[in-house]
From TrEMBL, chains A, B, C, D, E, F:
Residues 105-275 form the Quinolinate phosphoribosyl transferase C-terminal domain. Belongs to the NadC/ModD family. Residues 20-102 form the Quinolinate phosphoribosyl transferase N-terminal domain. This is Putative pyrophosphorylase ModD. Keywords: Glycosyltransferase, Transferase. The gene is modD. The keyword Iron does not apply. NCBIfam families: modD. It comes from the Bacteria. The keyword Ribonucleoprotein does not apply.
């Protein structure tokens, strides 16, 4: 994952537009020091590259001690950085805060993967583009660390048809004919259509669409629909979205869907990373 | 609040680096259309300026219908935008997703303000700098919409002494002498020291420090400490941080603190904004 | 297509970092003026949005007279802009030069589409990511104007396996097993493998790969291979790359491929746009 | 030549906004590897600094093996980079594509310099500002590598009077009087006027203009005009533009001009650089 | 102080958008060389971090020989850099010019601090936000090097009430009531009000305002007002602004004010730094 | 002069990273208001475009009342802006501070032009590139408003040979031979050499150099040298630099130089612009 200087400096500048008033007023900036990051709770690690890059960009000597994607016991030391107290204090909260958000996402993703795959070992947990605005790169990295997949990077590289698109077609015939042309026009991409009933899904699949994404369909109905669709369209991929979370993931996994699409993993508490800074 | 073109374009580019594959493949980009945003749940509104600026930057004609900070009933229409389907689809999810996060923060902030002030009408809900990295401007705006206050903008404009600073002083005498000098050196800023016991707080307050911020002190102890500190230091401001959330806010409000410092409001679900796009 | 202020200003700044020395030294900057762009040769129009945005950003009043993608006769007037001579001279060469490159790409793309589809009406002309570095957005827009398709936006959204990847696998068995896992891991994207012989293509297709991209295979061999692959893998998409240009496109179209992948369209002369500026 | 981080990251981001889907899905990112760039055809080398900077910025260990401006035999190895397969694949196409365009420009420039100077050893090949928009720095570097000169950096540092300027003068007298003042007003810059007939050139030269640039004048007429102008204005520099390319350069060199101004070198095929990546 | 790559590259690009025409035309770019910076006059050093970062960013090997804030004798060598002549010439003027401005600010600040504290050892010299636009980071660093304090970072982190604000209140009662609420609403910041008479200052101080800033009050009146205010409001901080400069600082220091607010230090000549570049 | 959004937003962000604490805390942001800028002293106006662009970018309705370059009497109203108090306060100090610096530069430039041309009507006042780092565009605009000329935009577009270049030549012969080649290699630019004695100037001029720039030569010597050089080299342009300021300009003008090169105009006080904001 490419972490640009622009991204790293935007994160730093949010916390440190100029100098660190406290550290400089207290006169401790030049003191040699060591900083240690450790996981306060059991978690799936993420954000290590961002944290390392932030701290190195500020001038610290960084020693990463664990890898993204590792499941850690509470208390595990994950990163050690050395440098002046000024440098370490400058990067402390930026790196810590970023990592806490990343670890939160990675841990929730990993939990969903584990629970979902205990039912269906090939189930894909695909994370939506509804990450916090401004935090896309960090979020994508954390999803990957947690074993999830990116649903869409954005509007430019993927085709997903919503009701807000179909509203522009006067007749279903016109819509389906346009979809058939789209299948031919985009032979290198999978086309996805959001559906909420079986009938529409059947018609759309018949156009050659690659993926049906059911929205807010309860697992009870979904299981039947998946079976019927897969019987008729062997190559069809089926996704479910809307209400997929750590509570519901196993019920959805049982329906036979291929992909569980979720924004749940962006939600919830960052996971605490304890940080200590000490003189050397 | 200044919303720079740079910020607005970064948000747009996260979702739309080039063109909108779905809308263009379906051939509906040029169709005149109208888009409406409405609150799916009761909430405190936020993110209106960002949403309007995003949509206008893409070329839409935007009509804001409600103001940031307003408490809305579920279902309230908040914004209407007109333009080509291409323009509206380009901005839809960027504006919606941003607003859902903003409304989530504003609503949680407002709830804490209401609950806290039901006990102490002058209580300040001060939000930490632990917002999601990359989302600072949006978060600050949402806090303001919810009636909260910004605790620190960052390291450069405020003084907050942590254990990670005091670790660099060999003796308490040296630390306290340095604090006294800091009080003189920074006469235009309030100096804040994080404490977790009364004894240290008393010593620090005697140095002329303006604000004591107690960290993770249970309300039971806090009430007594606040009383003792205020008796001796009439001008002292007292803040509490660590574990302040919608459940605990009233217990903390009863302790007599002036400021409740919280990261809670960044946590939790975005609040759904329903968006429809229709042909005109 | 989103044209960011950042992009537009980068283009302007390349030509106009500060002021226009000639126009200002000659003292004509304030004179009201009109500028007209017309196609010197028959061509497929592109770059209209970029040119309009550049000129409007500098303060001109712009009237676009033709649409991207239109096939024009030599001499057709495409855009008129009004403003001070200073404003029009500031944008003249930036807009003209950009449009000449865009029209060159669009025209070559369109010619390939016309020639290819005279043989196979569903043939897709897919343009590689080998555009001139720094000119990606302009190039993608011009391809679209010419009726072409984007092969890959870049590394992050598409899967294309080259020899430079397979070199890391000790055995073909290991490679094929990994490909099978990749098919499961990326259910929302089509997986493409570059091949140069039929045998390898057959094995790869059997892993569930969606697209075979043959590299530098002469049309004579290709026709036979396409037939054999399509017989066995009904859903397989077949692309050809390497040496696809305006001369060879019809020979390749006859082979039965679905997609002709080409960098040819980036090559060759910009197509002249005549620009006159006159006093009003 | 200053290669800013901003420029280098813009090039990288065009191809790699987030991660490399293929390399990561195939699980080979961490494998130690070596990448080699070699010239597929005889050429004049360029783009070495950009390629090295791109690859180093991504974390590779780069060993440049040849210098910009060197004339290479087909097959010459020019650069070797070591790093993880993930790092090398991240930079491969960005560096390769950039270098192919740069080598194309440098080789065409060098060929024109060689051919032109075989007639007139002091002939200057000056390249116009009509490079591909967004590729200015790369293009300027490649021109320099090929032995060419930059005609104008842009509008702010050079004076070149076109018909689109003179259209704002009611009388030739007014125009010439203004030119005389311009000569005094800009004593540190050479003033250039585009002409297409001898009479106008004579008048303009008499104003003290430093350079006459003839546009689209055939070599036959030009030779005579150059002789007449040089006889009368010993210090005058004469340039020719319009239709100067590898075919016409020698005919123009024979006319006695000092400068051949050309956009030809931006046109034409990038020159292939072969790239292999192998495990170490 | 965080010196971002963006800032450093903006400074470099102002002087070196592409290559160094002189050094390259003369053919000396590759020659190994050493550059030395020394203070031409006695001064307080500043700008060392910026100069080092600029030169390192361009590829030089930098050896800083003195520290920011040091008072230097004329002729002191402060920095030595090694690299190719091309690299050193690229950074020469950018670094020198920046440092001359920084040293000018630091030296004027230091002189004011010394003169002011000879009267009142606790006097704070607070520098306004009226630095040259675009030079904020450099200016803040230079102020710190000179022993000054930053008055306000900007509008977002500090409260300073001017007449241009009070003009919006119909009655003094309304204004004072609003100020009282502001004191409660912003418990973590000091509130400052600009005054020009004692009566208004008394009323404002009674609202709980932390700092009175007198504007353009002559020292004769000020001394009396300070005494009266301090008698009544023991915790009140008093600042003076308007006409505070190296001539007037001692007269103001005698009035008993706590803070002298000045823009004077931004004014005046940069202090010459002599720079030599020699072959190695 | 092109004023990019990037530049304008950098200026705004220096003062207003987020919101305006004072104006919002006082609750006056929404009040309709008018702001007026007027010159406190007689001056030459500059910075009008920047001020207008800043205020418009923030949402104000701006009415410029005077033009850049006009000589104004003290008290002249130059700009009126209308908008909410929030918008006007947001832009007040940014626009005012920028304009005060610009007017300072323009006024000093204009005074030098007037004084110098009272002696030599064709004298060019050329301003060096030693403007305050970060303030280049503003400074260039102000110089132009004052009637000055830009000496060099930077290193990339102009040739100026210093001792720090000649130090790399072992013999004068080698240096002069290289200069002769440079004259041929750069036929579209004037070549400038810094000299401090007549002998070297004569040799350099004989190489075909266009401009001799004498550094720190007193007017007494200079007059004689100029005469001797001009006698021998009719086309030679002669500049003087070092110690050129408002006091010395007339003495230098009398020497017969063509160009007075100065950094003086960047030095000295900004000229006060009075700003009032009132309710509408």
């Amino acid at each position: 994952m490419f972490l640009s200087t622009t991204l790293i400096e935007n994160l730093i500048r949010e916390d440190l537009p100029y100098s660190d008033l406290t550290t400089e007023t207290m006169g401790i900036s030049e003191h040699p020091a060591v900083m240690e990051f450790s996981a306060r709770y059991a978690c799936t690690l993420a954000g290590m590259d961002e944290a390392s890059t932030i701290l190195r960009h500020l001038g610290a000597n960084v020693e990463p001690l664990e890898k993204n994607g590792t499941t850690l016991a509470a208390g595990t030391l994950v990163l050690r950085a050395k440098g002046s107290a000024g440098v370490l204090h400058a990067g402390w909260k930026v790196a810590q805060n970023m990592m806490e958000h990343a670890v939160g996402i990675a841990t929730r993703t990993h939990e969903m993967v584990i629970k979902g795959r205990s039912i269906n070992p090939d189930l894909i947990i695909a994370c939506t583009r509804k990450c916090v605005p401004g935090a896309k790169t960090i979020s994508l990295n954390a999803i990957q660390a947690g074993g999830g997949t990116v649903h869409r990077l954005g509007l430019s590289e993927s085709f997903l048809l919503f009701d807000n698109h179909t509203a522009f077609f006067n007749s279903e015939d016109h819509l389906l004919a346009t979809l058939k042309k789209a299948v031919i026009a985009q032979p290198e991409r999978k086309l996805v259509v959001e559906c909420d009933d079986l009938d529409y899904a059947m018609k759309v699949a018949a156009c050659g669409i690659d993926v049906i994404q059911f929205d807010k369909v309860p697992p009870s109905s979904l299981q039947n629909w998946v079976m019927q669709l897969k019987k008729r369209f062997a190559h069809l991929t089926i996704a479910a979205a809307g209400g997929i979370n750590i509570e519901s993931i196993q019920a959805y996994a049982k329906t036979g869907i291929d992909i569980a699409v979720t924004s749940f993993i962006y939600t919830g508490k960052p996971l605490d990373i304890a940080v200590t800074i000490k003189p050397l």
